[in-house]
Each structure stands twice: as C-alpha cells, then as structure tokens.
Backbone:
C-alpha cells in the first residue's frame, strides 16, 4: 500500500521567501491506478456538523473540513512544507515587512473582483484583538498593519517576525461582501475558492458547486483541469464502521478511519493520505501541589514507559517515531531527525528517581511522601479506541513502581473542564499539534488559563523561555536554530514525553487528492 506522510522541511527552508517558483503538480493518477475522469460528485465524510461557517472563527476540525472547500489563502503550503503561489503570485519577507503581489483576474464567487485592498482589509481585521479571530495571537497580532495599491499588498510589523509572510499567507481570505457583513458568514460562504456552498443541510450534508472562470489554483490548476469534480458533498457520517462500508461500496470518496476497521480497508487495497498525529504524546500538569510539578517525578514515570510495547498499541499500523513537537503545515523549523533523544526504558532508574524525589516505597507496596500516597490521574480521549488499552499498559508499569494510577476517560466537556477550569488531572494522552514553534510557545511558554492563556500545563521552563524570547526577534537565518534548541529544553526537562506519532489516515476511494492539514479541493482528481 502506498502511504503518503509528512516529510519535514529542512531547517530554515521556511524563512526567506522571495519570488517562488512553482514545484511539480500533484500526480493525476494514483489511489488505485484508475484513469482520470472529470465531473461527478466527490463525497467526503465528516464526523460532525460544522456549525458556524465563519472561517475567521473556525476552531473545530469538522468546521475546517468544510470551510477550506470555499476559502483560499495567499500561499499554498504543500504537505511536505513547501510553498506554492495561490492568490499571491509572489511575495517578499524582511522580518518587519513583507509584500504580496496578487495574481491577475481573481474573482469572488459573486463575480466581484478580489483586490489587494480586500487582502489588506482581511489582514487588518484579523490583526485587531477586538475581533478575536482564530488567527489572532497565533499567526498575526496588532503589531501588523497592512496597506494596498492595486495588486500589491504591503505589510509592516512593529516587531520582527522571521515567519511573517508565511504566517499571513496562510490566513483564509474572505471577499468584500462577507467582510461587510460578518454575520452572514455563519451560514453562507464568500470566498475565492473553486467551489462555493450551494446547499446546506445541517445535520446531514453541505454541498459545494464548481464555479466558472477559475484560473488561479496552485500548480496552475484552473476550472478546466482534467479530473476535477463538478460538486463536492461534505456528508456527516459519525460511525466509523459506516464510513468504512461506504468507502468499500464507492459511495464515499474519502473518510478518516482509525481502529480495527482499517483492516478491512487495507484488505481491499484502499490507499490513504493523511497528516502526522501526536497520538502518543504525554503532557503533565505541573501546577504547584500536583505530583508532576517535580521534574524528578516526570523523568521517573517517563523513563519507566516501555515505548516499544505501548507505541504500537496506541498508534496502530501507521506508527512513526516522533520527529518533533511541530507537526502541521507549514512545518516551520522542523528538524528530522530531531536534535533531542528520549531515554531508554529503565525501571530501576525510575525507582531511584522517585526515591530521590522523596517518594519512598511503603510496606504496602505504595510510594508515599509525608504520609500521602503517590496518586496520579491519567486522562485520555474516550472516543479514540487505542487510548484506553495503551493507558492500561502504562498503568501496569507504574503499578510496579508503587504508583496509584487512576485512569479517566474524557469526553469533550471533560477535556475543557480539566485542562482549562478545574485543572484536575496529572498526565495522560494529551496532544498539541501546532504548525510552528510560535504557536507551540503559546502552550509551553505563554500565560496559564487562570490568566487567560493556553499554558494549561503550567510549564515554567526558564531555559526554554529565554531561547523562545531570542527566537521571536532573531534574524530569519538564526530563528530556527534557536527554536530547535528551545524544543530540546522541553524534552530534556520532561515537560512533554512524545511516546510515538502516527498518521491519521484519510482513505481515498475513486479519487486522489493532496492533504496538507485539510483536503485541498483543487487537488482532487476523480477516477473512472
């Protein structure tokens, strides 16, 4: 079976973008070797209703799965972290300034022109903290201001940002009518995409229809490119066995399937693409008073885990050694192999570390300190089938050390409460999957939730913080090296323990496509 995985970009490759040349287009054949045919309906399964369709407020994967059909960005980031012109034909980046030159003839779904001023209005809207968009604070802040003259967009920033053009180039662009009436974006689409929403059936499906006159896709794709469908249907199918059955029957062209149903798809020779997923990442609650506030305890219980035993259970057939903490496109500053390593499994050393931390083994086989047992609450995602059995293996190992491990399966409400409100957790299968070290820093170096931030682990790593501060204002050719050193500090201090990654497989039946983070509709090639 052919497997398409993320191949991290070389360190520093993401930093300076002058005028970029086009790479090779995605193959028109694959996914079973059928001939390319144009027309028809491409049907993709999504697991839940997307709800509000405003692309600037989107947070859930199911909503991204839908809105990315209709909206485009200035730069297309390929699955391997490369860059292709999309709405912008070229761009420059000087750290505190950037320019984008738009392609000629871009129009919106309503036929109105998409101009440089439209881009400026989008970026300025996202840069305003009062608008609280998804992009604010992660790829754009109030330090950015934007003007336009004709097709040329000029960006200035009051702070140096070595990723300025790439970050801004990833923001989904809304057309003038949508910007003038933000509320309308909740149930309609107003973008430059090849496909635009033509029918919404909440709880059932969202249908997008190909429009005429499209000429500005990545790799030179136009509306006349062979193999494109006429319509795309995003159909809500929550049960994975049903998704599998529909893929096998050909009623679905794509859907994400994990767990035992993968065996049926592999047996039928159905291929997949997908994104790297930190399925085996362990995070720790380092809040004062919790066991893992002590780095010796974090090191001890991490060192005890047998990654060779636990990894295949949680990751399944698509398991991969972790190559870093940044794993979504644009894959900024990913170093493969990473500049850090994980310790070998060693139960004796783990026991010694716990002794050193003051957690001594009692006559009852339980470790205690100041008369209190060493009790940890291990949380995991209830819907993820592999999480529970992998958590059981970890518990069995920690039991041997005299640790009382309480396993707790979380639904969506429990995740929100424990990580951001009650803080009643200690460790578990908890994952962060950012596309840049700047976003990673919001979780490991930013404010804690009680101060309005995202650092739900209450990490305070002085060495990491110092390197991150340097990296944020470094010259482009130095930034990645500093961010990679900072990531190593997180690993060395056991602020996280990445047991294993895997590929979250998006299966392809009767069609092929590219999937950076979400499926690119211009890359779909229907097969006969």
Residues:
């Amino acid at each position: 079976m052919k497997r398409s995985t993320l191949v991290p970009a070389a360190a520093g490759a993401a930093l300076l973008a002058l005028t970029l040349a086009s790479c090779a287009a995605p193959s028109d054949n694959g996914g079973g070797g059928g001939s390319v045919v144009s027309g028809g309906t491409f049907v993709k399964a999504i697991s839940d209703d997307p709800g509000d369709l405003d692309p600037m407020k989107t947070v859930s994967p199911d909503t991204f799965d839908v809105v990315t059909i209709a909206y485009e960005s200035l730069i297309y980031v390929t699955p391997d972290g490369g860059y292709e012109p999309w709405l912008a034909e070229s761009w420059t980046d000087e750290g505190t300034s950037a320019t984008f030159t738009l392609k000629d003839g871009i129009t919106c779904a309503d036929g109105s022109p998409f101009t440089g001023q439209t881009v400026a209005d989008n970026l300025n809207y996202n840069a305003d903290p009062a608008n609280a968009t998804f992009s604010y604070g992660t790829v754009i802040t109030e330090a950015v201001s934007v003007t336009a003259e004709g097709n040329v967009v000029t960006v200035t920033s009051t702070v140096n940002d070595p990723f300025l053009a790439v970050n801004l180039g990833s923001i989904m662009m809304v057309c003038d009518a949508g910007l003038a009436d933000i509320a309308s974006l909740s149930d309609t689409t107003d973008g430059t995409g090849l496909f635009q929403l033509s029918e919404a059936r909440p709880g059932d499906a969202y249908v997008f229809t190909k429009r005429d006159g499209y000429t500005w896709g990545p790799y030179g794709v136009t509306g006349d490119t062979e193999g494109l469908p006429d319509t795309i249907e995003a159909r809500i199918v929550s049960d994975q066995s049903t998704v599998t059955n529909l893929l096998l029957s050909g009623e679905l062209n794509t859907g994400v399937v994990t767990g035992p149903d993968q065996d049926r798809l592999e047996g039928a020779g159905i291929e997949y693409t997908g994104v790297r997923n930190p399925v085996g990442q362990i995070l720790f609650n380092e809040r004062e008073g919790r066991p893992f506030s002590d780095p010796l305890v974090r090191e001890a219980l991490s060192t005890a885990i047998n990654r060779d035993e636990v990894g295949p259970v949680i990751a399944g057939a698509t398991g991969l050694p972790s190559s870093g903490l940044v794993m979504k496109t644009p894959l900024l500053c990913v170093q493969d192999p990473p500049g850090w390593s994980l310790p070998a499994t060693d139960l004796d050393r783990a026991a010694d570390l716990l002794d050193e931390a003051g957690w001594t083994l009692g006559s009852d086989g339980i470790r205690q300190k100041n008369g209190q047992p060493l009790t940890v609450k291990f949380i995991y995602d209830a819907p993820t089938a592999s999480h529970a059995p992998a958590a059981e293996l970890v518990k069995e190992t920690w039991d041997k050390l005299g640790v009382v491990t309480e396993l707790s399966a979380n639904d969506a409400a429990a995740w929100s409460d424990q990580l951001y409100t009650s803080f009643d957790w200690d460790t578990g299968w908890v994952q962060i999957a950012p596309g840049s070290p700047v976003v990673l820093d919001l979780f490991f170096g930013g404010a804690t939730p009680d101060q309005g931030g995202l650092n739900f682990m209450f990490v305070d790593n002085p060495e990491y913080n110092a390197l991150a501060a340097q990296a944020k204002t470094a010259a482009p050719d130095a930034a990645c090296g500093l961010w990679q050193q900072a990531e190593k500090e997180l690993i060395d201090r056991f602020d996280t323990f990445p047991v294993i990654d895997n590929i979250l497989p998006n299966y392809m039946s009767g069609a092929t496509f590219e999937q950076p983070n979400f499926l690119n509709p211009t890359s779909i090639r229907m097969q006969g």
About this structure: The longest strand covers residues 501-508. Residues 1-32 have pLDDT under 50 and may be disordered. The chain is about 25% helix and 20% strand.
